[in-house]
Amino acid sequence: MSLNVQNVDNLDLKIITHLQQDGRKSFRDIAEDVGVTERTVRLRVAQLRECGILQIVGVVNPIKIGLQVVAIIQIDVEESLMDTCIELLRGIPEVRFITRTTGEYPLLIQVVKSSYESLFVFLTEKMKQLPQLRKTNVMVELQVYKNDFHYIGSDGKLLAE
């Protein structure tokens, strides 16, 4: 079955809401709370995962495992080399997020490093490998006040509505 935003119903949203709070919550507990059978929850979760709407992963706090420096790097690269640059960035383990953006810098990445020294090495050595890099803007995160992965509220509605 192919799901998309048009056929994600209120039950799917309620199930997702529970899993946003605790990705390890049992299907039985979710079923009891939303008023359906455990089998229904199991099938719905399988469908949501199969079509790419839902991913159940463990989220790691990088600071707690020794990755103390998080940098957001804006990148301006020649448009004709954009795909090559993105592919190179995908292959760098410490680059954990890549997105195309509007504005002066068409690429934005997030890099996580263990120290400022290792960030310096990344900036001066690995960034040099990117083709036709015009300019960068490096911002280091000093404190994080919110890092949330919730897209559906406790009422089962999309937060962006």
TrEMBL record:
What residue intervals traverse the membrane? none
Superkingdom, natural source: Bacteria
The record's section on Pfam families has: AsnC_trans_reg, HTH_AsnC-type
What InterPro entries does the record tag this protein with? ArsR-like_HTH (IPR011991), AsnC-type_HTH_dom (IPR000485), Dimeric_a/b-barrel (IPR011008), Tscrpt_reg_AsnC-like (IPR019888), Tscrpt_reg_AsnC/Lrp_C (IPR019887), Tscrpt_reg_HTH_AsnC-type_CS (IPR019885), WH-like_DNA-bd_sf (IPR036388), WH_DNA-bd_sf (IPR036390)
Q: Where is the HTH asnC-type domain?
A: 8-68
What are the coiled-coil residue ranges?
A: none
Q: Which UniProt keywords apply?
A: DNA-binding, Plasmid, Transcription, Transcription regulation
Q: Does the keyword DNA-binding apply?
A: yes
Q: Which PANTHER family match?
A: LEUCINE-RESPONSIVE REGULATORY PROTEIN, TRANSCRIPTIONAL REGULATOR AZLB
Name by which UniProt lists this protein: Lrp/AsnC family transcriptional regulator
Question: What organism does the record attribute this protein to?
Answer: Alicyclobacillus fastidiosus
